[in-house]
Input
Amino acid sequence: MKRTPTVAAIHDLSGFGRCSLTIVMPVLSAMGLQCCPLPTAYLSTHTGGFTGNTFVDLTDAMAGAMDHWRSLGLRFSSIYTGFMGNPRQMALSADFIRDVRTPATLVVVDPVMGDHGKLYRTYTAEMCRAMALLADAADVVVPNYTEAAQLLSLPYEAVTAAAPEDTVRRLSREGSRSVVLTGVSLRPGQIGAACFDRRDGSVSLVQTVFVGRAFHGTGDLFASVLTGALVRGDSLEGAARQAAEFVRLCAQRTAPQDLPAREGIDFEPLLGLLAKEAGLV
Ligand code: PXL
Output
């Protein structure tokens, strides 16, 4: 029997509010993948809509864990990165990717920096520059518009006004990496992504129904399903389509609950659908 693919997941662990590892781990597991978490920080809650959260920086623990994994000669089907606590964490992650990746390793960088035109509270200009360098190591980058603007050093308004097809081509760095730009709405009432696939240079647009409200963690949910589907061998467009549809289903069950957006997207009861789609049950 083929061994279960492994994903090294370098993200924060936030105790309440659904984001990062509390989404990444269950999603990848439900899709039949072994998630190997490498937490960048422990927060009591995420920083979107909560104040006064605790923040335990795990940079030294990360460096130690990476060294241990190197010494074991571990190799991963994928390395998937997200929220970072400081610029050193981006550099450590880039070094780790360089040292342990093989030609078969899929490197996905979700360049988590901000949303709705604003950086997250803990992000600095130096961190954004370091994130752009980490994203240079990616096979696939998954920015929203705010992060795309940071990666391209353009004003947010310039990126939202541009054609998404042009933006993903520019983000591909002359076709050397694949891009999935999230939060793309071609018409009112729709939401989805624009994809540049470096395998053949094609650009595709994926749209689904927008339920009318944004919830915390949808970006992490989208990128996690996308990563899982890519590791399972789906095409970029197919993986983006599955991610967009799963996020829509979860948003549709979250909206009528009328909870504060900061409590996050209610995805846990629907994880079985991912296992079903992967042919596991
Ligand atoms: O969902 C992105 C994210 C991840 N991790 C933490 C965050 C956020 C966004 O606010 O605060 C800790």
